[in-house]
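Lecture notes, part 5. Sequence design as translation. It can be helpful to think of inverse folding as translation between two languages: the language of shapes and the language of residues. The source text, in structure tokens, appears below.
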């Protein structure tokens, strides 16, 4: 405006202090958002539910029908968890993944069928 007043450049914000390595990992995995944390807990729940019967079988000393049930429940629960994960991802990100509803439900049913067939096979082979 006035020729004799020096022009000031806007002050830049001070640089951020360096982040810890675990903060960078959390940001890279996008776990700093609610959606990222929800997806993390969903995957963790699928793993716990899926591999729970096998962990119980490894720790517990069971025999007979209880052992057969735990052995057969392993693939059933794992595939059921994958089917739930596929349905959730298809519902949430189906357009971005270019999945139709038919493809999403088809993959979920395929995993359910694989789990049931695997469970039945292990049930009868254990006897």
């Amino acid at each position: 405006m006035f020729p004799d007043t020096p022009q000031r450049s806007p002050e830049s914000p001070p640089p951020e202090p360096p982040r810890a390595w675990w903060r960078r990992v959390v940001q890279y995995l996008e776990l700093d958002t609610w959606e990222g944390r929800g997806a993390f807990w969903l995957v963790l729940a699928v793993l716990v539910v899926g591999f729970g019967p096998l962990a119980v079988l490894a720790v517990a000393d069971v025999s007979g029908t209880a052992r057969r049930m735990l052995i057969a429940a392993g693939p059933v629960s794992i595939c059921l968890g994958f089917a739930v994960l596929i349905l959730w991802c298809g519902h949430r990100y189906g357009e971005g993944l270019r999945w139709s509803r038919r493809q999403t439900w088809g993959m979920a049913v395929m995993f359910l069928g694989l789990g049931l067939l695997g469970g039945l096979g292990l049930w009868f082979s254990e006897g």
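The translated text above is only one of many valid answers, since several sequences can fold into similar shapes. Helices lie at 21-28, 34-59, 65-97, 101-126.
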